[in-house]
Write a structure and sequence with these properties.
The chain is globular and about 70 Å long. It contains 12 helices and 19 strands. It is α/β, with parallel strands linked by helices and 425 residues long.
């Protein structure tokens, strides 16, 4: 059986490896020049840094197993970096239940109530929270004070105008997955994706980087195969797996029927945007700062080299300034110089000593369809693996509900699909 896989991220490459290990012929198509999808990196000296900040949780066991299988387990580190929240100009540690109980901006009764409700939310079965909106549920059960100081800024910064529409199971997933230790692969997760490419090719498969898929259609000879047309030519395949967002699949496969499109060509997703700075000195003592104070143009400040050693990156101090925004937001049309001019003055609000002269290098990256908007009716629009077109399958992060993305869930979804397709036990 000859497979085409559209997308060379965690899901596509894991599916490609598992199929190739079962003796199937595999061709993976990836538009970008490097593999990895949203977890792909760019090179800084001898190391790679993700274009969008990434780490693992202890619960991400499938990704840890894959890293070990690829011979990279010795690079995996589990530090416990400082994760803080910025509120009224001060930062507060909020990385454990005990930290929430000690959170000074909340009065003691509000702290206890919030901690109890968080425990129920984190450890309760997700079915208990179906059909409920996150914002009103938090206001009712945790109280107005915790909602105003902690949860409303987080929802608003991440989802903007859609913050009141987010389903409670999404928040359950965020709390359920969290761990105080965070996992990172020294040298960057790019090593995982480069090793996956190597393994697929060693098993006789192809990985076509820098190749854009333009259309999927029935092969002209009517033998049940599908033709994948790219900017480098067209080829027939027995089966095609799309790991692209459902909306992109609907554009690439015009033969999909209207009923399918009405149900699955649906919903909203925000794009991801990251400005990355190299400084000649540290800015803060924290790895992750949730920016709950109003007026900042970024939702999180992630100081990567308070997590991994600066020596890995030639002594640079590396900082992400991250955002999720609607894909028509003006931020995505601004030049790097314009974004720097807007963002840098706000760093002095966090560290008054900051000067733009500290910045030695900068990079900027953006990606569409990075953050699904998980509304109450989201679950009803999750597509099955099988599409109405014979031998065309869909497997993407839009199917990992109530989780909304993550390398670990991509690996799990890929393995589930391959087992179904090949009948593996």
């Amino acid at each position: 059986m000859e497979y085409a896989i559209l997308g060379g991220g965690a899901l596509g490459l894991t599916a490609g490896l598992r199929l190739a290990q079962r003796g199937e012929r595999v061709t993976v198509y990836e538009r970008e020049p490097v593999a990895g999808g949203l977890a792909a990196g760019f090179q800084i000296d001898d190391a790679w840094l993700e274009k969008f900040y990434h780490h693992l949780f202890r619960s991400d066991r499938a990704m840890q197993r894959l890293i070990a299988e690829l011979g990279l387990a010795d690079r995996l580190r589990w530090p416990r970096p400082r994760t803080v929240t910025l509120w009224q100009g001060d930062t507060y540690l909020l990385d454990s239940p005990l930290a929430f109980l000690r959170f000074p901006p909340l009065r003691p009764p509000a702290r206890v109530r919030q901690a109890a409700v968080m425990g129920a939310l984190r450890y309760g079965p997700p079915r208990l929270f179906e059909g409920k909106l996150a914002a009103p549920w938090v206001r009712r059960w945790m109280g107005e004070e915790p909602y105003r100081i902690i949860w409303e800024p987080l929802l608003r910064n991440k989802f903007g105008a859609a913050s009141e529409e987010i389903a409670l199971p999404w928040l359950w997933a965020r709390l359920h997955d969290r761990s105080t230790e965070l996992g990172y692969l020294r040298g960057g997760f790019q090593a995982v994706y480069d090793r996956l490419v190597e393994r697929i090719r060693a098993l006789g498969g192809e990985v076509c980087l820098g190749t854009t898929v333009e259309r999927i259609a029935a092969a002209p000879d009517g033998d049940g195969r599908l033709t994948v047309a790219t900017d480098r030519g067209a080829r027939p395949f027995d089966r095609v797996i799309s790991t692209l967002p459902p909306r992109l699949l609907c554009r690439l496969a015009p033969e999909l029927p209207d009923a399918y499109r009405e149900r699955y060509d649906w919903g909203r997703a925000y794009g991801a945007h990251c400005l990355i700075l190299a400084l000649d000195r540290p800015l803060t003592d924290a790895y992750w700062i949730n920016v709950n104070d109003p007026g900042y143009p970024f939702l999180a400040l992630v100081e990567h080299t308070n997590y991994m050693p600066p020596g890995d990156y030639g002594g640079r101090r590396l900082i992400y300034l991250g955002n999720y925004r609607p894909m028509d937001d003006p931020l995505f049309r601004q030049s790097k110089e314009e974004v720097l001019a807007e963002f840098l003055p706000h760093l002095a609000r966090i560290n008054p000593a900051f000067s733009p002269a500290w910045v030695t290098e900068s990079w900027m990256f953006a990606a569409p369809y990075a953050q699904p908007i998980v509304t109450l009716d989201y679950k009803e629009h999750i597509p099955p693996f099988e599409t109405p077109i014979a031998n065309l399958y869909e497997a993407s992060m839009f199917q990992v509900y109530p989780h909304d993305r993550g390398q670990n869930y991509s690996v799990l979804l890929a393995e589930e699909l391959v087992e179904r397709l090949t009948g593996a036990a």
